[in-house]
Amino acid sequence: MTTARTLPLLVCSIGNPGSAYANTLHSAGHTVINKLAAHLGYSQFAKDREYGKGLVSRPAITGGSGDWTLWQSTSYMNESGKGVKAAYTAWSRHIPVGEEGRLVVIYDELEKPLGSVTVRTAVGASARGHNGLKSMLAVMREVPFARIGVGIGRPVSRDSGEVARYVLRKMTPGEREKVELSVEEIVRSLQRLEKG
């Protein structure tokens, strides 16, 4: 019996760096990828110069299911494209010749219900106003990537200042729990994505 070949995945989160932005709604991608690493039993995130100066987490024990590398941006959201590109370039060097891998980006999604998960795989899809995705598309037009959006809700007001205050505020414990609960659905999504 042969097992189906799966694609290696580079799973990146984009958000804002540092403790001032930790656990803000706009950095929900980072909150989720931290929970994902713990859920999978991966190593602690550590800085890796080769991977665009981002933070990298890999399986603590080799030989498990799936070949996933987790990477967390240390750039500001609207500058995340360069770091993701550097990480993708470095990671791609480790893919055997003739094989392919897949880039997946986890980010916050303003218009979706808190903790909901949306997966988009269409090549050339719009950034939908998301500055992190705009930054990636500006420097990585030729690289197809899957997108996993984690819903963060939306304030009632459409005022841009009010929206900025909303996304940059810290999550309440209840909001964080809802966002972290999305991890099981994200794992299932990643398992589908690694199948091609």
Automatic annotation (TrEMBL):
InterPro entries noted in UniProt: Pept_tRNA_hydro (IPR001328), Pept_tRNA_hydro_CS (IPR018171), Pept_tRNA_hydro_sf (IPR036416)
Keyword line: Hydrolase, RNA-binding, tRNA-binding
Record-linked Gene3D superfamilies: Peptidyl-tRNA hydrolase
EC number(s) recorded for this UniProt protein: 3.1.1.29
Pfam families: Pept_tRNA_hydro
Superkingdom assignment: Eukaryota
Molecular-function GO term, any one: peptidyl-tRNA hydrolase activity
Claim: Hydrolase is one of the keywords in the record: yes
NCBIfam families: pth
Family, per entry: Belongs to the PTH family.
Name of this chain's protein: peptidyl-tRNA hydrolase
